[in-house]
Amino acid sequence: MKQKTLLLIALLCLFIGTAQNDTRLYDIINTVSAERIEKDVTTLVNFGTRHTLSDTTSQTRGIGAARRWIKSEFEKISSDCNGCLEVFYQKDLVKKGEGARIVKDVWVVNVVAIKRGTKHPNRFIIMSGDIDSRVSDPNNFTSDSPGANDNASGMAGTIEAARVLSKYSFDSSIIFVGLSGEEQGLYGGKGLAAYAKQNNWDIVGIFNNDMIGNITGVDGVVSNRDFRIFSEPVPPTETEEERRARRFYGGEVDGISRQLARYVYKTTKTYMPEMNPMLVYRLDRFGRGGHHRPFNDAGFAGIRIMEAHENYTQQHQDIRMEDGIAYGDVLEHVNFEYAKKLTAVNAINLASIAWAPPAPKTVEIGGVVEPAAKLKWSKVDGAMGYKIYWRDTTSPTWDNYRYVGNIDSYTLNGIVIDNFFFGVAAIGKDGHESPVVFPNKVFR
Ligand SMILES: [Zn+2]
Question: What is the pTM of this model?
């Protein structure tokens, strides 16, 4: 009798354990390899320069050789999984003078690898790194420009995530992409975002990885656990009506990119609790840019994942000694164990979103001058249930939730609408959740 009870408790614990944490995500974390990332960053650095305007005909030097190598790596991964990746170039001609950093006509070429989802083939979550590099003068396309951290680290992490995730099957599609033209004015991201619109891709969001390998900050802090998640507050594409509604119903810090940032924060805290993700409430670093922005400009969710402590003497610099300081973005400064961790952060979030059902399209909220908050939402295909999240208006994270089963409305009795922010997420069969949707409609 006693033994039976113990067995029952053990089984119950096992059930609860698997219901909350998908152990495949731990396998994914453990499979990401620092050695392979080091090998790939080294290969990228050895192309001499990967400047967007650099040579494209040499087999050993310049961005042409670099992108052909990246494509061949994706193809190698694909041939190891029965052709599970669709690999292709997506390119746009950018004309001389279109920007100050386009000093001649150039094809901006991105390398795309799609792991097609079995259930939602047209629904995409994207991980990106950049192919291109630069030195002090942004238009110098001949000098040695290793770009080891900026951004061979993000590129190598993207290739490694493709290797690891190619062994699994997902409901939604995952895109691994190397973007070009970042340093010349974010042209590659602009091109792919336009391509996505033309092809009616349903994009959940993009994780733009730009510099994921430096742990020694110019601020003197050394940390191999801190990293930043940048997200803009609300989309630049919002309508005047949406802007006005926000004044009365809230949402100043609850745009789609911010929800994606919170998603990454939460998954990291759950599966890699040793890491310190920092939610930074801005589009990007102060006055600086990155390749998630063109996606934001097109109305897609997008965040930047990167190191927390940058070193400015080691980015966008001619390789030189000056006043005893060694300038340059060289291989020796990249910490591959750290790049591995941030690659794992990407991989578990890509997997979790690709295994989760889509988020509800509409979420309505009501409960004005009532002792209860009321929520209604549109049901989604494949959801086992829904979670209503809420938090104090000053909290950056969704601190409270109630699981409500497979229904499409719920009243939170005793929770006054004025004092919290609310949202709804769809929950799939292995416990994977969609990003939280902030209410986009009000009812009385
Ligand atoms: Zn850069």
Answer: 0.95
Between the CA of 200 and the centroid of ligand 1 the distance, in Å, is 30
The HSE-up count of residue 28 (CA atoms within 13 Å, CB side) is 29
- For residue 51, report the distance from its CA to the centre of ligand 1, in Å: 11
Q: How far apart are CA 366 and CA 364, in angstroms?
A: 7
Q: What tens digit of pLDDT does each residue of 159-200 get?
A: 999 999 999 999 999 999 999 999 999 999 999 999 999 999
Are the C-beta atoms of 303 and 265 separated by less than 8 Å? Answer: no
Rounded distance between C-alpha atoms, residue 53 and residue 64, angstroms: 10
Distance CA 261, CA 210 (A): 15
- List 412's β-bridge partners, or say none: 373
Separation CA 54–CA 144 (nearest Å): 11
Domains and CATH numbers, the chain: 21-355 (3.40.630.10), 363-442 (2.60.40.10)
* Dihedral sign (CA 196, 199, 200, 204): negative
Tokens read off for 43:
């290969």
- Residues found in the chain: 444
Going from the Cα of 281 to the center of ligand 1, the distance in angstroms, rounded, reads: 21
Q: Containing H/E element for 154?
A: helix 154-165
Calpha distance 25→328 (Å, rounded): 36
The DSSP line for 183-212 is HHHSHHHHHHHHHHHHTT-EEEEEEEE---
Region of 347 please: left (phi>0), alpha (psi -120 to 50) or beta: alpha
Exposed/middle/buried for residue 238 (C-beta within 10 Å: 0-12, 13-18, 19+): middle
Residue 31: what pLDDT? Answer: 98
In the structure, ligand 1 is a single-atom ion and the residues with CB under 5 Å from it are 150
In the reported structure, the alpha carbon of residue 335 is separated from the centroid of ligand 1 by a whole-number distance in angstroms of 17
Give the pLDDT band of residue 375 (cuts 50, 70, 90).
very high
Ligand 1 centroid to Cα of residue 151, in Å, is 7
pLDDT at 14: 45
Q: Which residues pair with 109 in a beta bridge?
A: 91
Exposure string for 378-392, b = 16+ CB within 10 A, e = fewer: eebebbeebbbbbbe
Q: Cα–Cα distance between 72 and 148 in angstroms, integer? A: 20
The pLDDT score that the predictor gives to residue 21 is: 87
